[in-house]
Design a protein that fits this description.
Helix content: 40-55%
Number of helices: 13
CATH class of the largest domain: Alpha Beta
Distance between the termini: 46 Å
CATH architecture of the largest domain: 3-Layer(aba) Sandwich
Largest sheet: 5 strands, parallel
Strand content: 5-15%
CATH topology of the largest domain: Rossmann fold
Strand order of the largest sheet: 3-2-1-4-5
Number of domains: 2
Shape: globular
Length: 337
Amino acid sequence: MWKPSVADTLNGEGGDLVIVTGNCQAHYLAATLAAQGAGLVCVVGRPFGFMPQARGVSPFFAGQEHVEAIVARFKAEGHAITLVEQTSPVSEGAPRPWLDFIDAHVRFPHIELQSLWPHLSPSEKAYEPDRIRRRWALDLAALRRSEEKAGWDTGLTDYIEASLTSVMLMHTFNHPAGEIMGWLHGRVSRDLGLDQGQHQASFERIAAEIRADRGISFMTDNPLRQQVIDALELSWAREGWCGLWGDAVSASMRPDMVESLRCLQAALALPGCDPHVRYSESLVLEAMGDLKGSHRAIGEAYRAYPGNRVYAERWLEGFVPGGSPFRLQNDARFEWA
C-alpha cells in the first residue's frame, strides 16, 4: 500500500522535524520557529484555547501517542530531528520514548511569577506583604533552577530581579511580555542557527514583532492588586479593574452570584478592562439562569479574541436549540481564562 513520503508531504522540498514541548510559552515559540523556516514544527499536546501563530504561520499539534510514529517516519527517511524543550524547576517532564531518535536537543527555561498574582494560592493570607515577598523569593529560586537545567548562562533571572520594580515583564503569571519573550526567542533561535544566513531576515522581523506585540499579550493594562504593588514596590503597575475581578471570583465561591455580577459589571465599566472578563460574566449569568445574557457575554469575548477556540465553541453551542451555551459547565466557579 502506497504511503506518502515526508518529502511529498512537504511539497517535495523535504525538511527536518522540530518537536516542541512545554506550556503556552513553548507554543508561542513553536509558531515563531515555524515562521522562520525551521522545518516542520510539531508541538506535543494540544493548544490551550488559542492557536499560536507568527506572521500567519502556526505549528501543528500532535498527541504524545502520535509523536513516536511521526519521529520514526522522519528518521527512516533520513531527516534531522530536533527537540526544543521547556525545562521545569522540579518536573522532569512526561516520558519520551522517542528521545533516542533526537539529533539535537535545545532547552529553554520556564518563566513564572506567581508572586504578582497571589490569588492563585488557596491561602487566605496570600496578600500579606511578607508572604508576597517570600513568594517573590521562591519565584526567583525557581527561575534560577529552570535556567540551570536549561544550561543557560544569559543572566535572565538576574535581569528579572533587577528590573521588575520599574519594567512590566509579565502579562499573567506565565505569559511573558515582549522583553522576556524576546529573550527566549533570541536564545532558542541562536541555538538552532535560525538567526543567520537565509533565516536572518525572518528572525529579525519576528524579533521586532515580539517586542512590538508585547510578547504573549492578551492583557490590556496588566492590573495587579494594590497589596502586590506596595509589597514589591512596582512603579509601573496599577490595580484598575483587577481588584473588582478578584472580588467577583471570591463572591462566586460563596456563592453570591448577584454580588459577583455586580463586581464584574463594575470592572467592565472601567477604562482598559480586558474583554476576557466577559467570559467570567457569561459563567455567572448562566448560573443565574440568564442564558441570553450569558450568550451575549461570551459573544463579546469571542469577538475580542476570535483566535480563542474555547470562546468560539461555547458561543456556537448557544445556537443549539434548547441547549445552554455552557452545558458542560459543572458550576459557576471560574478561573482566569
